[in-house]
Amino acid sequence: MTNEKKAVIAGAGLVGALWAVILARRGYEVNVYEQRPDFRQAGYAGGRSINLALSERGWKAVEIAGIRAEIEAVAIPMPGRMMHGLDGSLTFQPYGEEGQAIYSVSRGGLNIELVKIADSHDRVRFHFNQKCLGVDLENGTIQFEDTRTGVKYAIENALIFGTDGAFSAVRSSLQRLPRFNYSQHYIDHGYKELCILPNLDGSHRMHTNALHIWPRGQFMLIALPNLDGSFTCTLFLPFEGEESFANLQTEAQVLAFFEKYFPDILPLMPSLAQVFFENPTSALATIRCSPWHYGHRMLLIGDASHAIVPFFGQGMNAGFEDCTILDALMDKYDEDWEAIIEEFNASRPEDTNAIADLALGNFLEMRDKVGDPQFLLWKKIEKHLHERFPKEFQSVYSMVSFSHIPYSEALAAVAAHERLFGKMLKIKGLEEKWNGTEVEGVFREWVRGR
Ligand SMILES: Cc1cc2nc3c(=O)[nH]c(=O)nc-3n(C[C@H](O)[C@H](O)[C@H](O)COP(=O)(O)OP(=O)(O)OC[C@H]3O[C@@H](n4cnc5c(N)ncnc54)[C@H](O)[C@@H]3O)c2cc1C
Q1: How far is the C-alpha of 258 from the C-alpha of 272, rounded, in Å?
Q2: Is 127 near ligand 1, meaning CB less than 6 Å away?
Q3: Model confidence over 364-399: pLDDT tens digits?
Q4: What does R_g of the chain's alpha carbons equal in angstroms?
Q5: Which of 32, 38, 52 to mutate to test the pocket of ligand 1 (most atoms within 8 A of CB)?
Q6: 112 CB under 6 A from ligand 1?
Q7: For the residues 256-282, what does the mean pLDDT come to?
Q8: Looking at ligand 1, which atom is closest to the CA of residue 224?
């Protein structure tokens, strides 16, 4: 336990940089060590930079850091998804109510912005090109190597945060402890980043304010808007099998694949084949572990403790929510880190495990169901129920993206909503009866049995 206001953060990614801002605002002296060169000058490595959807949970942490205006300036609202059918048809599906949106942010742009803001605090110091090698649990030190000189050194600090991402070096050290639980599960799909360039006048070549999606059953393509008029696209495709990365080895194969499944996007990607082979194909994993701490001085947050697949757009949001929760616990326990870490480690994993499951489940919805008439009917039912019973019914998507309801409650709602859906479908002529007594009767009975 410590009351010393000094923290070391390993990893200046999205969560580490935001956490540095929040700690500095609370009067902590923060030293942040990052293995990459300073990306404000060196730029952000392309091909894996992807765009992220920032939603309500993320915004709350951004507000706690006092930087909403700065982040809003680099974010584009996406109030719904634009579905691209094989025949070129477009269908817009709102994500929530009027005025609600998730926001497209460039990973690199956001990371650079967060580092700039953190670095403007007198109490924060960044150390780039410093690779964390692990932690010495016995001595309570964290070890680094200067990647330019090869010099290795150790730092002792009362509070150490591991925000060094899914392949965390801090976590690797904890993994050597007895009774440390760890699992890593890769899905069969990988992803590749592609790009749609802007029009000559800098405008977007598709509707700006939407998350574009081409659902194709076993795979899908998505595109999120950037401020410079471009779109960052991500192709999610199995590694192996008939339609897979393994079978896209030549320019002709890539072009034929896009012509078959994404004909409307081909004219927007004149350098498709070149970009396809330049950019890496990356894997997607869910990582769970426990405990997230060692003693009361080392704590993992963000992807280092809970990396998830991206299909609910929640990995970063969940990491930012870690910061929100820790900030509230600092108030609750008057910055007694022993109590804070204990409660965080006891309560938070249930929710991060839940969002891991929800994210895996949402992949099926995005790539397969969004074009399915049954799914569209369910979306209609959800909308009408929410309009009629706003206090009692909220869709799972809206719980996750537009509320602070614990993820575990959202996960529990999935099965409950499926039961309700089954009952609603039994109402004959449902679409003409949204405001009738029959719908209310079924709904009330469901509420009583929940
Ligand atoms: C394709 C894809 C799409 C996604 N879409 C979304 C989305 O729409 N919405 C959303 O909320 N989330 C999304 N995510 C998840 C999101 O990217 C992560 O959850 C988020 O980046 C986690 O932030 P972090 O700071 O914990 O880790 P990271 O962003 O990975 O940052 C870790 C940092 O630590 C540094 N580091 C690593 N090892 C060391 C070391 N040994 N020493 C020093 N530094 C080190 C790294 O260089 C990096 O700067 C997506 C992820 C993927 C792969």
Answers
A1: 9
A2: no
A3: 877 777 777 888 888 889 999 999 999 999 999 999
A4: 23
A5: 52
A6: no
A7: 96
A8: 8
Residue whose Cα lies nearest atom 19 of ligand 1: it is 315
- Write down the pLDDT at residue 46: 52
Q: 437 CA to middle of ligand 1, Å?
A: 49
Ligand 1 atom with least separation from CA of 33:
43
User: Is the minimum distance from the CB of 132 to ligand 1 under 6 angstroms?
Assistant: yes
Map out the domains of the chain with their CATH numbers.
Answer: 6-43+107-183+286-361 (3.50.50.60), 373-449 (no CATH)
11 CB under 6 A from ligand 1?
yes
pLDDT tens profile 306-334: 999 999 999 999 999 999 999 999 999 99
pLDDT of residue 7: 97
3-state class of 400 per DSSP? Answer: helix
* Residue 237, ligand 1, Cβ within 6 A: no
What pTM was computed for the model?
A: 0.96
Phi/psi of residue 102, nearest 5 degrees:
-100, 165
Q: Is 35 in the pocket of ligand 1 (CB under 6 A)?
A: yes
The pairs formed by 196-201 with CB atoms below 8 angstroms and a separation of 24 or more are: 196/223, 196/230, 196/231, 196/233, 196/265, 196/268, 196/269, 197/229, 197/230, 197/268, 198/228, 198/229, 198/230, 199/229
Bond preceding residue 77 cis, omega within 30 of 0: no
pLDDT tens digits for 191-228? 999 999 999 999 999 999 999 999 999 999 999 999 99
How many Å apart are CA 252 and CA 69, to the nearest integer? 46
Distance 316 CA to ligand 1 centre (A): 7
Q: Is the CB of 52 under 6 A from ligand 1?
A: yes
